[in-house]
Amino acid sequence: MIVIIGATGTIGSALLTRLADLGVPARALSREPEKLRYQIGELGQSTIEVASADASAPESLRRAFIGASQLFLAMSNSPRQIELETSIIRTAAEAGIEHIVKISSPAFERSAPVEVARWHHEIESALHESGLTHTVLRPYAFMQNLLRFSETIVAQDVFYGSMGDAACNFIDCRDIADVAAEVLTNREKAGQVYTLTGSEVISYPQIADKLSALLDRPIRYINMDLKAQRRDLIEHRHMPSWLANHVVEIQAMSIAIPEKPTDTVKCLLGREPRTLDAFLHEYVEIYR
């Protein structure tokens, strides 16, 4: 049995679909189990079960871990992340979980200029100290996050950022989920650290060109300085300050440290990762 923490997230929900396709038993945890059952629909009639649990309540986790040997851990970033995930790891070890697959950050060094990356570094340290077999997945930017640009593209034919012309690694969350399923079902590939990207790097101006061609109208990328971007995210996108800081920090790092793709997805899955062109074609209607 595989327990899934983060089942409502983009990666976790895709992982549930993949495990259901494979016929692998999994238990998805949620503080609102009825809502999750509605979300997963017909998956709940397959090998996927839903259980009530709260990451901040160890006793509820102990109940949810009964009969399970593996844990997939993909919590949303938050200022409580270190506290919650290290507590989950301790509880999992006490409950007899043998293998944890954790979604982490590609910038994992303690000195990384990204605060959220430092949180993940602390959690990875806790995983190492737990003595449990663990697999760490370090994906770069999610293609799905580009869907957040749809509001201003639809209304103004523009999207904003602070990336300049810097090329960025993108990966489809479904590829991350497929990798997670692979390491959860193939123990020979467990116990490693995997950095995950798509097969190409691409800049925001290039994404604007791709969208222009797809939509048959000019789409512009407007670059902002980091302070203006942070202010816009807080005042107009209503982001909490820590999340706005995270967005501008990772964009600043992409400018400062050139990114390049890895072949990890292909090596693990035996196929090329999904392309950004394919992703944009699939979701083109959201930008119209």
From TrEMBL:
<dbReference type="InterPro" id="IPR051604">
    <property type="entry name" value="Ergot_Alk_Oxidoreductase"/>
</dbReference>
<dbReference type="Pfam" id="PF05368">
    <property type="entry name" value="NmrA"/>
</dbReference>
<dbReference type="InterPro" id="IPR036291">
    <property type="entry name" value="NAD(P)-bd_dom_sf"/>
</dbReference>
<feature type="domain" description="NmrA-like">
    <location>
        <begin position="2"/>
        <end position="241"/>
    </location>
</feature>
<dbReference type="InterPro" id="IPR008030">
    <property type="entry name" value="NmrA-like"/>
</dbReference>
<protein>
    <submittedName>
        <fullName>NmrA family NAD(P)-binding protein</fullName>
    </submittedName>
</protein>
